[in-house]
Amino acid sequence: MPAFRFEAIDQAGKTKKGVLDADSARGARSQLRTQGLTPMIVEAAGARARGTHSQRLAASKRLSQREQAILTRQMASLLIAGLPLDETLAVLSEQSEREYIRELMAAIRGEVLGGHSFANALTQHPKDFPEIYRALVAAGEHTGKLGLVLSRLADYIEQSNALKQKIVLAFTYPAVVTLIAFGIVTFLLSYVVPQVVNVFASTKQQLPFLTIMMMALSGYVRHWWWATLIAVVVVIWSVRQILAQPGPRLGFDRWVLTAPLFGKLVRGYNTVRFASTLGILTAAGVPILRALQAAGETLSNRAMHGNIEDAIVRVREGTSLSKALGNTKTFPPVLVHLIRSGEATGDVTTMLDRASEGESRELERRTMFLTSLLEPLLILAMGGVVLVIVLAVMMPIIELNNLVQ
């Protein structure tokens, strides 16, 4: 039975909004009138809003990572408790505070009641449920373990969000320090240096070379800052256009994996995503080739994604998963060894989970080490720049004092 979103006015003149099930829009209006409401707007739930303003709002709507994790966790809990899927979606639609989520759940429920599978219903909303999400749901429906798969999927989303948040927070302080330092140096060069140094320039005194260079840099900052800004924008745009092409992007991603410090971070982050996703897929009973292909899609590094495609070819030819991944020389040896142990014991899923947890902890440790190394380096760099500016200002004063004596 389709779901319809409505706006109606009660007898007191108050506006009410919500979602209800009906055979048609006409039937929905009849239900509202039976309840003593005067229908104003009745339209299919999830339908694209009309009008320029509404289209702009609809385009900006989507589930956040936090909302996706909460919905997945709630669905898993209700399904494991024995509630049918359509009733689960109805409960989520009724209890959601955000209107967009209510309409989304109602629209998915309407597709399910119309005879579509849950995975096919999610396909109508690719913004909110990515391909890997839909693949896991399809695997859960196929094996009859949808509740357990959604529970593991909720764990994966929460852990992924927590890891991203830790990495972002770790690099926030160095970014703020860099921004403040840049602002202070710009202020010194554009205001302080000209005010002080011009006094000595008017005395026709021979200025030190460092002071002359600082005056030239100050003049450039004051009069040609816009040229620097344009150049930076052009460079960023050019780099993005170049990296949008497959060849340069692949070469760049290969270089990133070998870059000092940051290369291990990129490798570790992608390894965590790959191992976690592959563990969920294998636990859901997805065939290994399909699981490898889906897990490979979660990799943001093109070089590592290409290595997974090579591994898929080797596994299809009969090579074990551990040996296929080991031949790529890309993934950490710990992951390969744990998969080999899982193949020997017949429990690859548990070993993938252990590899994901271990690599996640190692990634956090490396992130903390890198940020703890960046902070003193930024402070030293800031101190060095300020020292050069102070010397450029003080050297004429010292020379003038020597001449007076």
TrEMBL record:
State where it is primarily located.
membrane
In which family does this protein belong, per the annotation?
Answer: Belongs to the GSP F family.
* Protein name per Swiss-Prot or TrEMBL: General secretion pathway protein GspF
* Pfam families (alphabetical): T2SSF
Bilayer topology: Multi-pass membrane protein
Keywords, sorted A to Z: Cell inner membrane, Cell membrane, Membrane, Transmembrane, Transmembrane helix
Which locations, inside or outside the cell, does it occupy? Cell inner membrane
Q: Which organism is it from?
A: Caballeronia mineralivorans PML1(12)
Q: Which InterPro entries match?
A: GspF/PilC (IPR003004), T2SS_GspF (IPR011850), T2SS_GspF_dom (IPR018076), T2SS_GspF_sf (IPR042094)
Which residues span the membrane? 167-193, 223-239, 373-398
- List the GO terms this entry assigns under cellular component, sorted alphabetically: plasma membrane; type II protein secretion system complex
Write out the GO biological process terms. protein secretion by the type II secretion system
Boundaries of every Type II secretion system protein GspF domain copy? 72-194, 274-396
